[in-house]
């Protein structure tokens, strides 16, 4: 009942998730990302613990491969055939899982630096369109590419039940998100997400965001204490 993209940007080291569904408040449980670690989307019969625990494992075990992480998470998941999960790490490596019980059309496509996945879709077309949109926009800012990928998936049919919520969650260098935009309940959530994203590009918000404190500005003693 969801389509999403997880991605990492080798130029800026941003990582994030863009997602949409015919369900309430998709941004609350599906997207997970941590700066310098990676991003995970957990969907179908959503288990947010897969995202939370997966990022902890990636952070604490720096040499853990994403395929190994996926196997570890699924080995503890009793209902793995009902789950859909995809991952990108801080090196751009990707891995994905679509359980047998995920409702058609369901599947995933993994690439270097990003992955797309969906279930209960009209067809495979939304994933193909998302991948093409993201790949063809390398000249654009990372967050814009994520939004365009989501728009492409929606234009080609998206969730076959309709539309309700969408979200964009991106992290960069801090523990708090670079962007966390959500449309929790709306008849046209992706168009509304676009409006929010465009608003976030205006000077008043950019200057506000750039003035926020960062770990980079902390004295070393405080930064180490926070760790």
SSE blueprint and pairings:
Elements: E1 2-8, E2 15-21, E3 31-34, E4 38-44, H1 48-60, H2 66-75, E5 83-89, E6 94-98, E7 107-111, E8 114-119, H3 125-135, H4 142-155, E9 165-171, E10 179-183, H5 189-200, H6 203-210, H7 220-226
Helix pairs in contact: 1-2, 3-4, 4-5
Structure description:
Helices cover 33% and strands 26% of the residues. It has 227 residues and is of the alpha+beta class. It has 7 helices and 10 strands. The longest helix is centred in the middle third of the chain and has 14 residues. The protein has a single domain, classed as 4-Layer Sandwich (Glutamine Phosphoribosylpyrophosphate, subunit 1, domain 1), CATH 3.60.20. The strands form 2 sheets. Strands 7-8-1-2-9-10 form a 6-stranded antiparallel beta sheet, covered by helices on one side. Helix 1 crosses helix 2, helix 3 packs antiparallel against helix 4 and helix 4 runs antiparallel to helix 5. It comes from Vasconcelosia minhoensis LEGE 07310. This is DUF1028 domain-containing protein.
DSSP strand count: 10
> Uncertain segments of ≥5 residues (pLDDT<50)?
none
Q: Rough shape?
A: globular
Instruction: Assess the beta-strand content as a share of residues.
Output: 25-35%
From the alpha carbons, calculate the radius of gyration and give it in angstroms.
17 Å
Question: How many domain regions?
Answer: 1
Question: In what order do the strands lie side by side in the largest sheet?
Answer: 7-8-1-2-9-10
The assigned CATH architecture is 4-Layer Sandwich
Q: Can you say what the CATH homologous superfamily is?
A: Aminohydrolase, N-terminal nucleophile (Ntn) domain
Q: Portion of residues in helices?
A: 25-40%
What order do the SSEs take from the amino end to the carboxyl end, as H and E?
EEEEHHEEEEHHEEHHH
The CATH class label is Alpha Beta
Main beta-sheet strand count, sense and barrel state: 6 strands, antiparallel
- By DSSP (H or I, 4+ residues per run), the number of helices equals 7
Protein name: DUF1028 domain-containing protein
